[in-house]
Design a protein that fits this description.
10 strands; six-stranded mixed β-sheet; alpha+beta; four-stranded antiparallel β-sheet; 187 residues
Length: 187
């Protein structure tokens, strides 16, 4: 497993031809304005472990974005059944927040992945990390695909786009997200 992650990180960092050279892959950007989302307060059994509630937010081309906060950690998923997708249960181990800009990767105009910047706490002193998370968008298989430490990798945005373009379509959601580039701090 470690070998495959190191191999993949090496392959992505040396810049082998990406799928984007063969297909029409572009980026589109939307804002994730949490104040404009429709927040639902959890009730009954749901309430355990969910502090901030759940929200339905608008995304690119009408694709719903699901955001939840529980135990000071964010959860983000996409699609018509976003709350029941694997991504709705994935987060970083440390307390964290998310950025307000979503990058959508589009293949021939159809979104297949997103890139979102997360800010995990790095212990006492209020220092924050900076992690890009690539999430696959596929009904029944929307999940985190890759994580890139933006503080440890000067080319983090490039690595995130390459990971989206090369891994998202075939990623097995039963696997852990792949760490791309220099690992940095993924506490």
């Amino acid at each position: 497993m470690i070998f495959s992650r190191l191999f993949l990180a090496t392959v992505l960092s040396v810049g082998l031809p990406a799928v984007s050279e063969a297909a029409d892959i572009i980026s589109a950007y939307t804002k994730l304005n949490l104040e404009a989302c429709q927040w639902r307060q959890p009730t009954g059994e749901e309430q355990e472990g969910i502090d901030g509630g759940k929200a339905d937010c608008p995304g690119y081309a009408g694709i719903p974005v699901y955001v939840a906060e529980g135990d000071l950690r964010m959860f983000v998923s996409f699609g018509a059944d976003a709350e029941n997708e694997p991504a709705a249960h994935q987060t970083l181990p440390n307390f964290n927040t998310i950025n307000d800009t979503l990058e959508w990767r589009l293949l021939n105009g159809r979104p297949f992945a997103t890139i979102l910047r997360w800010f995990p706490d790095e212990g006492s002193g209020g220092k924050k990390g900076n992690i890009l998370i690539v999430t696959r968008i596929a009904p029944g298989a929307t999940c985190q695909v890759a994580r890139i430490d933006a503080q440890a990798n000067a080319n983090a945005n490039v690595l995130a786009r390459q990971a989206a373009d090369e891994l998202a379509n075939d990623f097995d959601c039963s696997q852990e997200p792949v760490i791309i580039g220099r690992p940095g701090n993924f506490n």
